[in-house]
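Question (not urgent): is this output format expected?
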Amino acid sequence: MIKGHLPFKSGIQLSDRSILIWRVIQGLVWLAGTVILFCLIFFPAIGIILFWNILIPIAPFLLVVFTGVWRNVCPMATNALLPRHWGISKRKRLSTDQIAQLNLVAVLALYILIPLRHAFFNANGLATGILILSMVAMSVTAGFFYEWKSAWCSGLCPVYPVEKLYGSNTLLSIPNAHCGECRNCVIPCPDSTPGITPFTVKKTVYHKISGYLMVGGFPGFVWGWFHVPDHESSSTLEQLFQVYKLPLFGTFVTLVLYEALRAVFAKRGEEKLISIFAASAVACYYWYRIPSLIGFGLYENDGMLINLKNSIPAWIVFIAACCSTLFFFWWIVFRQTTKKSWVIRPGFAFERVEKENTLFSSKIKQAIKL
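Got this back:
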């Protein structure tokens, strides 16, 4: 038995020491996020570099390889789960349809917000800070009213659809550092469902639309996004149309391609097809993002972290982009499927109650004998 905890039948229950270690890590990541938010508002030039040119470029790789680690330490998740950890959440339950609707809203939010980076956020630290603060408010509100991760982490969070797309072949499963016990707040639980994808659940039309947009549409969306330059601000409908035009066109093209291939291979090859499109999306991201970070992007200075254009030859950048593409296709498509979940499900709440009742009954019987 782990010290301080009852044995659970269906998962791993962290020891008090392990929980403390995870809380310290979560606190440090949360503090780092707070520093970035502070810089975005008060030192926007620094904040934009830290958020858009360091944190965000790392995130897709983390979601592909260590999805569970991110799920455990995401600062937005920490915000969302504070009401539950503090015992002030109303802990309402959402139906399958309601969660599916929230998932679709998250996907649509992703498609709406990402092009707006070109229009406002990439060059405006304050606007980015306000966006993050708005998401903090929504996440805490969701956690205050609804049980565990149902409303935000597995519902409204715009990053969650990308986690499902990229995290289907994660490296390892780690203990759940947020949920002390499972209360089936989301069925199936995305954290503890092995090999989850955007199409794992197709119960409702909302699930299906979300799945098609992420699997079929996201590779083209990413391609289109990188072919739009940044603007200081976009105040007219014509300017806004320009930042959406190519991403939505790319979405349409790869959606049609996905549906055509799906019709050819039918259900027999659907799992492999999903992995190919997921790898295409993240590989496309780094194909363009790596060059832009070091001054070789399609648009000068857009998304640049450091300018190495006069320091290294272009062929090195090309090889680096090719290597990243090969890595992601190997990792997601060709590497042996691990069928691992992001995290290991903790014991179910009813099992804890059952164990406590058993121990209580045992003590009563012992007292009677005495």
